[in-house]
Amino acid sequence: MLLRDIAHTRTGDKGNRSTLSVIAYDKKDFALLEQHLSCERVQAHFAGTVLGPVERYALPQLGALNFVMHNALGGGVTRSLALDAHGKCLSAKLLSLVIESAPRSESDPTSSSGNQHA
Questions:
Q1: Of the candidates 10, 6, 19, 8, which has an alpha carbon nearest to the alpha carbon of residue 72?
Q2: Strand pairing partners for 64?
Q3: Which of 6, 16, 63, 93 could covalently link to 29 via disulfide, CB atoms 3.0 to 4.6 Å apart?
Q4: Helical (H) or strand (E) element with 21
């Protein structure tokens, strides 16, 4: 499935940094987000665009992960020669990420696989 099937995003730009929050539509899918969206996987997804480190902050009470992507905006929003490769475009690209859904047992439709932390 695509990430967009279970989550939406919010973004922000500041200097040469982009922040991207991935928010599960349903909190029961938060474990899938944690499992499949490590710093390394997000950075690999943006190879060639995000040139600095990626930090991840988990917000389980909101069912969200927040990523801070350094050196991600070609020098900064007002300095970049890129055609709108800023937060909103980055979030749209991340939502195209393919993730595997965990099989749910028939007796418990809210169960999901374990967590992995970045």
A1: 19
A2: 23, 59
A3: 6
A4: strand 17-24
**DSSP per-residue string spanning 26-54:** SGGGHHHHHHH--HHHHHHHTTTT--S-E
Q: Look-up: residue for tokens 């389980």? A: 60
What is the total residue count of the chain? Answer: 118
- Evaluated on CA atoms 71, 76, 79, 83, the torsion sign reads positive
List pLDDT tens digits, range 54-91. 999 999 999 999 999 999 887 766 655 555 555 666 76
Does this model's pTM top 0.70? yes
Sign of the torsion formed by the C-alpha atoms of 87, 89, 91 and 97: negative
